[in-house]
């Protein structure tokens, strides 16, 4: 049986071994193969799922929605529209979050500029670098 040991799957996906076990336990990863000794072996398909889960998790999709998406995908092509709609809704939330982060970033940058104007030491000067 060819594939990736759990440690290699964790390294490639950026998820911890505990997260891989959890994702399997809750059904995000389905039918992970095992060696005769019972060790999990991850396939390229599993790694593809993990890449998608990384994207969804990093963009704030709740686990329940990730599970729903995975369930729909495993049901087959007749769920394409529902999967697409789920991802569209998530994309809207991501876009809203990006707008909020951009506004907050601008506020943060303005606060930094405010403090730089108050500081007797110019940014990047030798005195600043020494302290």
Question: Can you characterise this structure?
Answer:
By secondary structure, the protein is mainly alpha-helical. It contains six helices and two strands, in the order H-H-E-E-H-H-H-H. Strand 1 (33-34) and strand 2 (40-41) form a beta hairpin. Helix 4 runs antiparallel to helix 5 (80-118). The longest helix is centred in the C-terminal third of the chain and has 39 residues, at 80-118. It is flat. The relative contact order is 0.09. The model has no long low-confidence stretch (mean pLDDT 92).
What features would you highlight for this structure?
6 helices, two-stranded antiparallel ribbon, 2 strands, 131 residues, mainly alpha
The major beta sheet can be summarized as: 2 strands, antiparallel
**Shape, per Cα inertia axes:** flat
What topology, given as strand order, has the largest sheet?
Answer: 1-2
Per DSSP, the total helix count is: 6
Rounded mean pLDDT is 92
How many β-strand stretches? Answer: 2
Low-confidence stretches: none
Q: Could you state the order of secondary-structure elements as H and E?
A: HHEEHHHH
Helix content: 55-70%
Strand content: under 5%
Radius of gyration (CA) equals: 22 Å
Class based on secondary structure composition and strand pairing: mainly alpha
Give the termini distance in whole angstroms.
Answer: 58 Å
């Amino acid at each position: 049986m060819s594939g990736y040991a759990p440690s290699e799957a964790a390294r490639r996906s950026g998820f911890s071994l505990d997260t891989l076990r959890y994702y399997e336990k809750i059904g995000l990863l389905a039918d992970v193969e095992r060696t005769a000794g019972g060790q999990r072996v991850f396939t390229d398909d599993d790694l593809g799922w993990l890449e998608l889960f990384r994207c969804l998790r990093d963009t704030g999709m709740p686990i329940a929605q990730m599970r729903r998406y995975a369930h729909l995908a495993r049901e087959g092509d007749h769920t394409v529209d529902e999967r697409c709609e789920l991802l569209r809704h998530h994309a809207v939330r991501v876009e809203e979050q990006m707008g909020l982060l951009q506004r907050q970033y601008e506020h943060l940058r303005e606060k930094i500029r405010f403090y730089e104007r108050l500081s007797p030491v110019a940014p990047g000067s030798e005195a600043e670098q020494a302290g």
